[in-house]
Model the fold of this input.
Amino acid sequence: VQLVESGGGLVQAGGSLRLSCAVSGSTFSITPMGWYREPPGRQRELIASITSGGERTNYADSARGRFTISRDNAKDMVYLQMNSLKPEDTAKYYCNREPDPLAAMFKWGQGTQVTVSS
Done:
């Protein structure tokens, strides 16, 4: 499986960005997916996840109410709509499968940088 994230950039506080993740691999439509971020000097954290069919989503407290995860199984894509961005959202953002003790994570992509200025 190959993961390619895009859509990051520099945005002012209060602005919006939509991140995209292209997933290659035949198992995408049956795999719960997530968006992760790695702020400077901090560990990577899961901030949003979505079930394989897109019927349920879950968010970290830092993302709830501002971010929306979605997926298009026909296009093998996962998205993260980010609104009301804050400087503390500055991080490199990655997509990958939702953590599963019975399945290894996919090889991480290059991520996409999001920088929010105050």
Remarks:
- Residues 20 and 79 are 5 Å apart (CA to CA).
- The chain is about 0% helix and 50% strand.
- The radius of gyration is 13 Å.
- The mean pLDDT is 96.
